Amino acid sequence: MEKDRVEGAAKQAKGTIKETVGKVTDDSKTEAEGTAEKAEGEVQNTVGGIKDKAREVLNK
User: Fold this and answer.
1) Rg (Cα) of the chain, in Å, rounded?
2) What is the DSSP-derived secondary structure letter of residue 29?
3) If both were cysteines, with which of 1, 38, 44, 53 could 15 make a disulfide (CB 3.0 to 4.6 Å apart)?
4) CA–centroid distance for 60 within its chain
């Protein structure tokens, strides 16, 4: 499994928590940071998936 997938999933989780804390505390800055971090994690996870698939295809 590609390192990017693991790191991306961790960023998604951290971003979700941060986003929720921002909503609960009515802190729009923290909520926005969480949303951005979650999106960054999704992209990184996708990149890792593409790398995994490319490696799989090349090794056949």
Assistant:
1) 15
2) H
3) 38
4) 29
Give tens-digit pLDDT for 24-51: 999 999 999 999 999 999 999 999 999 9
Distance CA 27, CA 47 (A): 31
Element holding 16 (H helix, E strand): helix 3-24
Q: What's the CA gap between 15 and 22, in Å, rounded?
A: 10
**Cα–Cα distance for residue pair 31/3, rounded to 1 Å:** 27
Q: Average pLDDT of 9-15?
A: 96
Residues with Cβ < 8 Å from 25, sequence gap 6 or more?
none
pTM for this one? 0.83
Question: Collapsing DSSP states into helix, strand and coil, what is residue 54?
Answer: helix
- Measured distance CA(51)–CA(32) in Å, rounded: 29
